[in-house]
Amino acid sequence: MPAKGQVALPDVVQKSAHLSTSVRRARAAVFTVFGVNGFLFAMWVVHIPSVERRTDISHATLGSLLLVLAAGAIVGMQASGPLSDRYGSDRLVTISGSLLAVALLGPALSTHVVTLGLSLFVFGMFNGSLDVSMNSQAVDVERLYTRPIMSAFHALFSVGGVIGSLVGAATLAADIPIVVSMGGATLLGLATIALCRPYLLDVSTSIDAPQAMSEVGHGRFSARVLALGALAFALLLSEGVANDWSTLQVKEHLGTSDGTAALAFGFFAAMMTVGRFCADRVSGRFGPVAVVRYGNVIAAVGMLLVFVSESLPLTLAGWAAFGLGLSGSVPQIFSSAGNLGSGAAATNMSRVVGMGYVGLLAGPAVIGWSSHFVSLTTAMVVPLVLTFVAAAAAGIVRPRDAGTREAG
After folding, report:
1. Which pTM value belongs to this model?
2. What is the distance of C-alpha 192 from the center of its chain?
3. pLDDT tens string 341-390
4. Which residue, 200, 192, 223, 237, is CA-closest to 364?
5. Do 44 and 104 touch, CB atoms closer than 8 A?
């Protein structure tokens, strides 16, 4: 019989085993949510040409509507943070993920530019909301897991994107109507989110909700949040450059065919995914600062190779190194934002994610504008400089002392 105030050893072991099992299940559930998000977004992307034809709009109009989608995403991100702090990220993941799956039907059913614009705003809003809430949930799981796992969550988003691209391509090749393929994706998304729901972590009871809301009610950004947001802006801008311009850079600089030039993005995306699966181990052994610092040194070397290379193999190696180097940095930034010590963790996350998302949108525009004056290869000096700056500023992601609180 244990002394008063003590807990019997079997009870401790049982509680520890239960916690371990629940955390492992939560990790699997959040992995799945990240994969579903990547899958649903990829299903939209591969069907963009079909939607464009169905609504009979020009490329220019489509470009404007994509900005509407981005605006919706930013609105969703900023709303999701305070709501996650108030009601729990598990609830926001469930609601946002389910509504995102349903919103996927909007573009598929649209036959006019107005309805398409509205549906894209709604789709972007729920995608942005899910982005913040699932990252907040991932931070909660990582905190209990006691070792870094954030990069692996982001890797699952990439895997989901690949699966969605393959499924979408297969449905297009089989001439399956867009409403049917998107409807199937919607049902799959709803079912998967419903299956994950019981295993998500409910940490809202551990947060002083009124205090959390009061910390963010005045809307101020702390210096630390601004610094993390600026770093996210720089690195997602660089990622956006690779997403939209890597293929054209190879084609213009080396005079290759379209198919050969497409290998640049393929190498970048593949190494980005591989790097995300490996970054957690590096972070666990050497810390998040090392991931950001040395990762961006690798990215800078890769971009320098792209900048000076006149050979296809070396250029592809440069884009691969760029993807590998960037892969682990953004997850470390998001994890740092979610662990600032404030009750308003998800709100801090939403601010950092929002600033990063603006960078993701700005990158392609900056390079496009620059290409009116210099070659695409010369314009790559922008991500080259930004990765060097990020390497120098890597100390921003260093974990704070447990007792230190971050003002909202």
Report:
1. 0.80
2. 19
3. 655 777 888 889 889 888 888 887 788 788 788 888 898 999 999 999 99
4. 237
5. yes
